[in-house]
Design brief:
Layout (H helix, E strand, L loop, with lengths): L6 E5 L5 H10 L3 E5 L3 H7 L5 E3 L3 H7 L2 E4 L4 H9 L13 E4 L5 H12 L4 E3 L15
Helix pairs in contact: 4-5
Length: 137
């Protein structure tokens, strides 16, 4: 693998995350993966363009972009700001793509906290933020 600019960190290899990570690998992206279930990382490491990290911090240290796909906002909080969290290793210009299942109020709070660390934050478009359709007349 090349340097951190050529890598994407991917945290959360569950029901949705594992297929998405496999797709990125299949299309040629270099991944650094992390999951609390290390067997999920090992399965992806069989690919030459994938390595496993030992913590969220290491995943962020080895990649300039990070995708998180976790089951709860509390999991996101731990991955970003807990012991060995990715937030501590973010550098100016790094990108966080947060695609976890969680509460919008917690995501917004986490986004403000991440922004204070200087990376860019990309979030999915939530249906609750879409304009309501107008009724037909």
């Amino acid at each position: 693998m090349n340097g951190r600019q050529d890598r994407i960190g991917f945290i959360g290899l569950g029901t949705m995350g594992a297929p998405m990570a496999r797709h990125l690998i299949k299309t040629g992206w270099n991944l650094v993966v992390f999951d609390i279930d290390t067997a999920r990382c090992t399965a992806l490491e069989e690919n030459t363009n994938c390595i496993a990290a030992t913590s969220p911090a290491e995943a962020m240290h080895l990649a300039s972009r990070l995708i998180t796909m976790l089951p709860t906002s509390e999991n996101v909080e731990e991955v970003l700001f807990g012991n060995n969290g990715a937030g501590a290793r973010m550098q100016p210009g790094d990108i966080l793509i947060e695609m976890s299942t969680g509460r919008i109020d917690q995501l917004e709070r986490q986004a403000r906290r991440i922004q204070s660390l200087t990376p860019s934050l990309l979030t999915p478009l939530f249906a609750s933020h879409l304009p309501k359709p107008q009724q037909a007349i």
